Amino acid sequence: MARECKLILVTFIEINASSEQVWKNVIEFPQLNEPTEFIFKAGVAYPVRAVIEGKGVGSVRKCQFSTGDF
């Protein structure tokens, strides 16, 4: 009889910056350099940049990847 196996994984990173600095870069960030790793050259999508249109409630965040926006 097979038993169900559950795995819980928790990770975190500590960032030496203020909440405001971190939030600004989570919401919107400038153009990133193209990665050099083979997996991305083979076609796996990678982030290019993120932009936000508007301010506050109702704003739209667009994430631009090498394969298109979403």
In short:
The chain has two helices and three strands; from the N terminus they run H-H-E-E-E.
Structure, described:
There is one protein chain. By secondary structure, the protein is of the alpha+beta class. It has a domain at 31-69. It contains 2 helices and 3 strands. It has helices spanning 19-27, 38-41; strands at 47-53, 60-65, 68-69. It has a 3-stranded antiparallel β-sheet with strand order 1-2-3, with no helix packed on it. Strand 1 (47-53) and strand 2 (60-65) form a beta hairpin. It is extended and about 55 Å long. The N and C termini lie far apart (43 Å). The model has no long low-confidence stretch (mean pLDDT 87).
